[in-house]
Amino acid sequence: MSANLARVVQQRVILLMVMSALALLFPRTLFANDEKPPADVSATSLATSLGATLEYDPLTRTGTFSRSGQSVRFGTDIPYILLDWSIVKSVPAPYEGQGTVMVKKDFADALKNFYATKPSASTKYSVKAIVIDPGHGGKDPGAIGEFDGFKLQEKDVNLAIAQRLTDLLRLRYPERTILLTRKGDTYLSLEDRVDMANNIKLGVTDAVIYISIHSNASFNKNTRGYEVWYLNPNYRRTVVDEKTAKEKGQDIAPIINTMLEEEFTTESIILAQKVYQRLGTMIGDKSPARGIRAEEWFVVRNAKMPSILIEVGFVTNKEEAELLTQSPYLRRIADAIYNGVCDFIVHFEQ
After folding, report:
1. Distance CA 189, CA 52 (A)
2. How far is CA 297 from CA 14, 84, 232, 266, in A?
3. Which terminal residue of the chain, N or C, has fewer Cβ atoms less than 10 Å from its own Cβ?
4. Is 58 in a helix, a strand, or coil?
5. DSSP readout, 177-238?
6. Which residues face 96 on adjacent strands?
7. Half-sphere exposure of 311 toward its Cβ, with a 13 Å CA cutoff?
8. Nearest Cα to 135, choosing from 155, 161, 165?
9. Strand partners, 146
10. Partners of 100 in the beta sheet?
11. To the nearest 10°, the Cα dihedral for 310, 3, 128, 264?
12. 332 touches 340 (CB < 8 A)
């Protein structure tokens, strides 16, 4: 575990401990029956108005507003905030509602007062978009496992995991673009899937990552386990867009392209490692680890960004197929991928 990631985890644990203690020590402030509660606003809109960034973890139900190194940490249903890890302030408790985090006017006013004398956030590189691609769909079922009593199609497994992963990421990163290539049992070509990612409009300091979710198959019915794939570093491709190539010219554009290829490869490997490690923690007791591997899959070689392809298990192995029919197990896989993506974003942005 890197020093930055260890520090983030330590701070998250401390925050949860402090928030829990405050909730026990102090009663929640309630409005009197004859008072009209202030209007509620979304945490996302509040962050935008403050020029701050917002991160919210739906698993721990805690979040952070950040601007120029100044942080405000909160927990849903906890009527206190921590200002720069040094000041505790009583506020109306934020809550989850309609797929987002909502806050009261007094909560918003407390943050506005805190940031009133703070400078605006400085520019930094950040992951602004995440594309989640559940493989196959519609007329293309993907791998199929047929056993006595049940039949399992890869497309259904992939979609269930991708939907929960998307929900978790949208809760944690409400200001970022979280794109699901298919929302239901529909067919998309491989070209359509990567085009959705490649056509996302980004600023100069913005980045996008691509995560393709699949289930595996084998003629050997005893084969089982999970894998994470990235593009073979030896595969050459064009990642510089036409506008940049034209502006830089024939001499400079190839150099930029090579640098970008190397950068995307490095980041793809790191992303693969983060997700692979989290999968081991979450499902390693049920499914064996088969490694991090390099291959020229269509989606990873054509996505012009850091990208990985995850094989969550074998639908052709009866024991693993039975696990992949169970919602709690699929949630564990989605949670593992989610935490791996969050780990990567912390690494990338710090």
Report:
1. 38
2. 42, 45, 9, 17
3. N
4. coil
5. EEEES-SSS----HHHHHHHHHT----TTEEEEEEEEEEE--SSTT---EEEEE--TT----
6. 101
7. 27
8. 155
9. 151
10. 97
11. -60
12. no
Q: Is the pLDDT of residue 120 over 60?
A: no
Give the span between the Cα atoms of 199 and 306, in whole angstroms: 15
Q: Cα 56 from chain centroid?
A: 11
Residue with tokens 């405000």: 72
CATH topology match: 3-115 vs 126-349: no
Q: Specify the 3-state DSSP secondary structure of 278.
A: helix
pLDDT in tens, 277-309: 999 999 999 999 999 999 988 888 888 899 999
Bridge partners (DSSP) of residue 133 are 212
Residues 252 and 60: their CA atoms lie apart, in Å, by: 47
- Torsion angle in degrees (nearest 10) through CA of 194, 127, 105, 39: 0
Diameter of the chain by CA atoms?
73
* CATH class label, 3-115: alpha beta
Which residues share a beta bridge with 228?
292, 310
Domain ranges of the chain: 3-115, 126-349
Smallest CA-to-CA distance from 51 within 66, 73, 63, 33 is with 66
User: Global pTM?
Assistant: 0.78
Asked if pLDDT for residue 256 goes beyond 80, the answer is: no
Residues near 168 by Cβ (< 8 Å), separated by ≥ 6?
Answer: 58, 59, 334, 335, 338
CA nearest to 235, candidates 190, 301, 299, 293: 301
Q: Does domain 126-349 have CATH number 2.40.50.140?
A: no
Q: Which is nearest to 163 in space by CA: 207, 99, 216?
A: 99
Tokens of 80: 């206190």
Nearest to 207 by CA among 128, 123, 266: 128
